[in-house]
Design brief:
The complex is a heterodimer of chains A (322) and B (492).
Chain A lengths: L1 H15 L1 H12 L10 H26 L7 H17 L4 H25 L4 H20 L4 E2 L3 H8 L1 E2 L3 E2 H19 L1 H11 L1 H6 L4 H27 L1 E2 L7 H12 L10 H21 L3 H29 L1
Antiparallel strand pairs in A: 1-4, 2-3
Chain B lengths: L6 E12 L2 E12 L3 E5 L6 H9 L6 E6 L2 E3 L4 H7 L1 E4 L11 H5 L10 H14 L15 H14 L4 E5 L7 H16 L3 E5 L3 H7 L2 E6 L2 E7 L5 H9 L17 E8 L7 E6 L3 E6 L5 H9 L8 E4 L2 E3 L4 H6 L2 E4 L3 H5 L6 H5 L8 E2 L2 E2 L1 H15 L15 H13 L5 E5 L7 H16 L3 E5 L3 H7 L2 E6 L2 E6 L6 H9 L1
Parallel strand pairs in B: 3-8, 3-9, 6-7, 7-8, 13-20, 13-21, 16-19, 19-20
Antiparallel strand pairs in B: 1-2, 1-4, 4-5, 9-10, 11-12, 11-14, 14-15, 17-18, 21-22
The chains are: A mainly alpha (322), B alpha/beta (492).
């Protein structure tokens, strides 16, 4: 009896997020063909491949929760990686590379925040423009050529393994996941973010420092994007202006797929994590099955449309029932 | 006339079930042609559900609907309109960025062969209800009552035989209300029936011919309005007798608590007033007279320069809601859903919103303390909610309002500013809010109350200020002044 009730409850939670259903559907489907899908190696590889995007997504989630969005993360990520490689190549220590890269992300986020929160511009357009602007800067910095890093230590950051077999990127992602989860779930900062996204006016009338908090959300988003950029540069051992072309769209899209509302105030890092994992898992499954890469884009598109449409349909049903 | 056609609308044994609730239980109503038919009932009595079934938003589960002699099985909002049944909702269905004429014939421009014809036809419709609104002005620039005119004109453009008005007066001032009364009478004379849903019993008595009283999804009674008294009506609505609509007035007025001097903006001129400890100060004026602007300026929500604010004799600077909060002020705004509540949040999170910084250690929210606060306020204010974790959207209007009050009670505010504290709340919950207000002043707080309901102001406040065109035009002791005297000053 009580088991029945708890199953019902679990089902209710799961069915709210069509992305979770998609994950289970893929997992069940992959039982049948003879592939290496169900191996620890494959799962770790899947997590490693998605780690960079996930890290970007954690920061973007904060901005989206506050009722914004950040499409500049592609350019920011690119800039962070290039700056880090340039600094290391010039013989400076690695920690300095991190500091400079993250500071650049903070500056980008600060400008985004100024434009969106202070000047009340439309975040979608302004951050899209900012991303293009940064991309342009990156191309100027590198002369549009990839720059290879000469430091082995730098390369080690993202390519080593912990505890024998766990890729370092997965570990970094896990740590950041916990940090962002706690930030949003347990701190007053996190709660205020939800409140601002939920209803800006109410938050303001309740004496919440709406402007600095929403502003800082963009800074956080910028910093995590550059952090991801440095890790990506380390992973590829290269800083290049072609990285991050689809990152901005993919990450923001992933947040929404997982259930973080673009209107703000609903969602969280768990949702964003799941949202991006779905896309990665689909790619992984299709690679396992040897599906042509031209078809892969098609299926990815179908999946995204289906999930979002399904979630909206579910919400519509719920609204009509009330 | 054809037989059995004296009724424009007949509803027989309608039932509607929502998961776990019987929202309508064998409801039967017959609305004759050319009458104003009032429907009263507390929130949750089923009035809105019934209207939504008639307009095709919901499907009925059982029963029959006969409209204009035609049995209607299934309808959509557009079909209902085309048959001649239109609804004017509390929140207007108008496109603010389009003109009056465009709104009236939205989506049907071809009907009048283009825009010139549309505006011409719109003009005729507006003239027919005695309104002089320019059909080329933007709806967003209109006042609430003008928007209502546009809605009525829109209903008439469909050649409506029955117009349902859901709480039409909630955004109107008493002057505008009079105009609405005239129009309703005109509609009746034309043979159009009006279903008038309202919480305000005065309006029911003034406008309606027949009243149906609903409670808990049932029609309790249908009577010509002359055969009912106010007390009977309330007793039937709430299912118990309420001797008084208002609790006894509080008398605890003490020293000055808040002094505002020389408040000037583009809309406000030389606003100076004093609020005393233990006082309920009522602000009366037409919508747009500057009532809301005054309290927004006092609360720091709008940036205003040059005025002086004294708190207990000492000057304070209030240029943001945050500083206002620190100074001991609290704001319960007019529009619950837009300015008062964070709808995706639970009851608990809404209650603790303003005191979050007090229960935070090193940035981390103390969740057990948070729970304690939420439970304390739920208990103290009698908020009816299944659990503190229930989403605030699912609560009734009165309970939602209590959540906002609870949010501020937790901070022991010295000055509580309430803008239309009982709008859209049923009679029982209103009384509870009034009791709560008295409790606040009893404990040494003070309340500034804005209200469009004059009886409420007269019965609750210790002092009344009338505001007209951004100026304070009069000060009254409500125990001595009459409603007409006060309204006279408020209209200017």
């Amino acid at each position: 009896m009580s088991a029945n009730v708890s199953i019902n409850k679990v089902w209710k939670v799961i069915s709210k997020q069509k992305a979770v259903i998609a994950i289970f559907a893929m997992m069940i489907f992959m039982i049948f063909p003879q592939t290496t899908f169900y191996t620890a190696y494959n799962w770790l590889d899947m997590l490693r491949s998605t780690a960079i995007l996930e890290i970007v997504a954690f920061g973007v989630t904060v901005a989206v929760l506050c009722g914004g969005c950040d499409l500049s993360v592609g350019g920011t990520l690119c800039l962070g990686g290039i700056l880090a490689v340039m600094i290391v190549n010039n013989g400076y220590p690695i920690w300095l590379a991190f500091v400079v890269a993250l500071l650049s992300g903070a500056v980008v986020g600060f400008i985004n925040g100024f434009l969106v929160v202070h000047q009340k511009t439309e975040p979608f357009i302004i951050t899209l423009g900012m991303g293009m602007l940064l991309k342009g800067i990156c191309q100027q910095l590198t002369d549009a050529h990839p720059i290879t890093c000469t430091s082995l230590d730098f390369m080690q950051i993202s390519n080593r393994k912990f505890f024998g077999s766990i890729p370092s990127l997965v570990v970094y992602m896990a740590i950041l996941f916990v940090i962002f989860f706690c930030l949003l779930r347990f701190t007053s900062y996190g709660r205020n973010c939800y409140a601002i996204g939920g209803n800006y006016e109410v938050a303001k009338y309740s004496g919440i420092k709406v402007v600095p908090i929403k502003w800082s959300a963009f800074v956080i988003s910028g910093v995590t994007a550059t952090l991801a950029g440095v890790l990506l540069a380390s992973r590829m051992n290269t800083g290049s202006s072609v990285y991050g072309d689809s990152t901005g769209m993919l990450v923001n899209c992933g947040c929404v797929i997982g259930g973080t509302s673009f209107a703000g105030g609903v969602g969280g890092v768990v949702e964003s994590f799941i949202g991006l994992l779905v896309i990665q898992m689909l790619t992984n499954c299709m690679n396992q099955l040897g599906i042509d890469s031209y078809y892969q884009t098609l299926f990815e598109g179908i999946l995204i449309v289906l999930i979002i449409a399904g979630d909206c349909y579910g919400r519509k049903l719920k609204r009509e029932r009330v | 006339m054809e037989n059995a056609n004296d009724y424009i609308l007949e509803v027989k044994d309608i039932c509607k079930y929502f998961p776990g609730v019987k929202a309508l239980d064998h409801v039967s109503l017959s609305v004759p042609r050319g009458v104003v038919y009032g429907i009263v009932g507390e929130n949750g009595a089923g009035k809105s559900t019934l209207m939504k079934i008639l307009s095709g938003v919901y499907e009925k589960d059982e029963g029959t609907v006969i409209f204009n002699g035609e049995t209607i099985e299934h309808t959509t909002p557009i079909q209902a309109l085309e048959r001649g049944l239109s609804i004017i909702y509390q929140e207007f269905n108008l496109v603010n960025t389009m003109t009056v004429g465009e709104n009236i014939f939205l989506g049907r421009f071809s009907l009048n062969h283009g825009m010139r014809g549309t505006h011409k036809k719109a003009r005729e419709l507006l003239d027919s209800i005695g309104s002089s609104i320019n059909t080329n002005s933007l709806v967003g620039d209109l006042s609430a009552s003008e928007m209502q005119m546009v809605e009525i004109a829109k209903a008439l453009s469909f050649d409506s035989k029955l117009i349902i008005m859901d709480e039409p007066s909630s955004s109107l001032t008493s002057e505008e209300l009079k105009k609405l009364g005239i129009i309703i009478n005109q509609l009746r004379d034309r043979g159009v029936s009006v279903i008038y849903i309202s919480h305000k019993l005065d309006e029911i008595f003034e406008y309606c011919n027949i009243v149906a009283i609903m409670r808990d999804g049932c029609v309790i009674d249908v009577k010509p309005v002359e055969e009912l008294t106010r007390g009977e009506m309330i007793a039937k609505m709430v299912g118990r007798t309420i001797e008084n609509e208002y609790p006894p007035r509080a008398h605890f007025v003490g020293e000055p608590l808040l002094e505002v001097k020389n408040l000037n903006t583009r809309k406000l001129h030389n606003i100076s007033f004093t609020l005393h400890k233990g006082e309920i100060l009522g602000l009366v004026g037409l919508v747009g007279a500057g009532r809301t602007e005054i309290i927004r300026a006092v609360y720091g929500a709008d940036k205003v320069k040059g005025h002086e604010t004294l708190l207990e004799g000492k000057p304070v600077r209030v240029s943001s809601p945050k500083q206002a909060k620190k100074a001991g002020m609290a704001l319960v705004p007019e529009d619950r859903k837009r300015e008062g509540l964070i709808l995706p949040f639970s009851v608990q999170n809404n209650i603790t919103l303003a005191s979050l910084s007090d229960l935070t250690h090193h940035g981390v929210v103390d969740s057990s303390k948070e729970r304690e606060i939420a439970e304390r306020q739920i208990e103290a204010l009698g908020i009816k909610t299944p659990s503190p974790d229930t989403k605030v959207v699912s609560l009734s209007g009165g309970n939602q309002q209590k959540c906002i009050v609870g949010r501020w009670m937790e901070r022991d505010p010295k000055i509580l500013i309430m803008d239309e504290p009982t709008r859209g709340i049923d009679v029982g919950a209103k009384y509870e809010i009034y009791v709560l207000m008295n409790k606040i002043v009893e404990e040494g707080g003070a309340i500034i109350m804005i209200s469009s309901e004059l009886p409420e102001v007269l019965n609750m406040s210790n002092r009344v200020l009338t505001i007209c065109d951004g100026r304070i035009t009069g000060e009254f002791n409500p125990e001595e002044a009459s409603a007409t005297e006060i309204m006279d000053k408020a209209i200017g």
